[in-house]
Amino acid sequence: MTGTTHSSDTLKAPLVDPSAWRGADLRDRTDWIVTLTATEIAEIEAALAETRDRRADLFALTKDDFALPTLSAKLEGLLPVLEGGRGFALLRGLPVERYSEEDARTIFWGLAQHVGIPERQDGAGNLMHDVRDTGKSFADSDTLRDYQTDAAINFHNDGADIFMLCCLQAGASGGESLLVSAVEVFNEAMRRRPDLAEVLQQACWHMDTRGQRRDGVKVQVMPIYTYWNGQLTPNYKNSLMYAAQRFPEVPPFTEKQREAIALLDEICGDPDVALSFVMEPGDIQIASNYATFHARTKYRDGGDPDRKRHLLRIWLTIPNGRPLPPNFEGTREFGATYARRMTPNGGQT
Ligand SMILES: [Fe+2]
Predict the structure, then answer these.
(1) Distance, CA 153 to ligand 1 centroid (Å)?
(2) Backbone angles phi, psi at 169, to 5 degrees
(3) Which of 15, 167, 317, 324 would disulfide-bridge 328, Cβ 3.0–4.6 Å?
(4) How many angstroms does the Cα of residue 238 sit away from the middle of ligand 1?
(5) What is the DSSP track for 128-150?
(6) What is the mean pLDDT of the chain?
(7) The model's pTM
């Protein structure tokens, strides 16, 4: 499939979409939390035992190597929720305290195999990232990324169709997770300021690639929201848009751009729009990077080195993922998914 037959359009009204929800509507419901049963945990532990002799090559383990007789269908059942539904779920109840870190990595990788195909998350091709504080700040380095700090992270989307985050340790305080519907944020922007909703769809947004693109491109230029093929597909990280302003070849933000980002911040920060929750050890957050933006409050690790906040992250291409707009080709965030889904032979040459 190629995406070249459709050109992107400009959406001039709110989009009616199943992924347009407000936090206020979900806060008192629990249907977005999927709790693992004792049987399912036993399946996970049996699969883990089967991998015992093959850990040296963890990333070569496939779905067949990590058989989950009944849990597999439950995980696959999340796919229409992730694409075409509300866009996220929280898997709860994995007893991570029972497992070594190596076992937890293996379980997380094995579960992910039943959801999709892991994609690289950086220029080096790493398939699983550790989200924890390295003691550095974003401004210290051209390549450091938000997830390597203890700072608050603004609302944004990640790369590939979905991200999975597995909490191993929660940290001493803070680090609350926040999710918003990317479509509802757009719709609210359209209701308040249609002129700025148009700016959000213009290819005027320069983003620092943090040196992670294999072709060496330092700055990407594209819309925050691309309306294409009847869907609104975002690529939004305002920290990387501010960071791109340091390059002399990048034009300074226009007044309208500043207003547009401020409007997104304001809408995302509305407690009725965002859903907030605390990830407990063993929780696995699974969310679409098209349907949702996510954020995290600042956290504090405390003194005990064994109790520092630590999450594992995988980015996945899912089998029912949406066709991607042509301007997503080659991007740091979505290039791998684009190649796999939208180009002949999955981008293999
Ligand atoms: Fe993220």
Answers:
(1) 8
(2) -140, 140
(3) 324
(4) 12
(5) SEEES--S--GGG-SS--GGGSS
(6) 92
(7) 0.93
Expressed in angstroms and rounded, the spacing between residue 349 Cα and the centre of ligand 1 is 30
Under DSSP, the state recorded for 309 is: -
23-347 in CATH: which number? 3.60.130.10
Residue 1: predicted pLDDT: 32
Per residue in 303-345, pLDDT (tens digit) is 777 778 899 999 999 999 999 999 999 999 999 999 999 998 8
- Residue 347: predicted pLDDT: 67
CA 38–ligand 1 middle distance (angstroms): 30
User: How far does residue 312's CA lie from ligand 1's centre (Å)?
Assistant: 12
Pairing of the two strands 33-35 and 88-92: parallel
Residues, CB within 5 angstroms of ligand 1 (ion): 158
Question: Which segments of the chain are extended strands (E)?
Answer: 33-35, 88-92, 117-119, 129-131, 153-156, 162-169, 173-174, 177-181, 205-208, 219-222, 225-228, 231-234, 275-277, 284-288, 292-296, 299-300, 310-317
CA of 286 to the centre of ligand 1 (A): 12
Q: In this predicted structure, what is the pLDDT of residue 247?
A: 95
